Amino acid sequence: MRDGLQAHCRACQAEHYRRRQEAGGLTVRARVPVPRGSERCPKCAEVKPHSEWVRDKGSSDGWASHCRDCRARRHRESCFQRRCGITEAERDAMIEAQGGVCVICLSARPEHVDHCHETGRVRGVLCFSCYAALGQLKDRPAAMRRAADYVEGNSWKPTLVAPGVYQLPS
């Protein structure tokens, strides 16, 4: 209208919108009253205070669309899917199949999904220490064997055979 107002009240306009959506086969989420200083999370359907939300300057109200817990859960799920190609349920099944321990040290709780950088195939779930050790040795089996020999007391001392040519111990 010329005065900047609509011809119908807000409740009538909302009812008209709902009917049009339902006629097209869509559903409209029921409006839930939310107290001042709170938001309703569409994922968990809970009304939570602003202290449990993340600020988002891009949104119209200044708050994120989901609560902190749901955002963290969604980020974790998408991270597993994006990085490893598995779901959290598949990771939990792998941990269960491993007996609930790291497959290398057999003592610590596994937390990190390990995969082959060449093929992308998931190898297992490791504890942080074993996962970091594999990363530091750059997934090279020869380096890992030399490290195991070193730890067992077999020092790695190459023999000079010719200028610039060394023979490795067997």
From TrEMBL:
InterPro entries linked to this entry: Endonuclease_7, Endonuclease_7_sf, His-Me_finger_sf
Keywords (A to Z) from UniProt? Endonuclease, Hydrolase, Nuclease
> One of this protein's Pfam families, by short name?
Endonuclease_7
Q: Where are the transmembrane segments?
A: none
Q: Name one GO molecular function term.
A: endonuclease activity
Q: What is this protein called?
A: Recombination endonuclease VII
Q: What is the species listed in this Swiss-Prot or TrEMBL entry?
A: Streptomyces rubrolavendulae
Species classification: Bacteria, Bacillati, Actinomycetota, Actinomycetes, Kitasatosporales
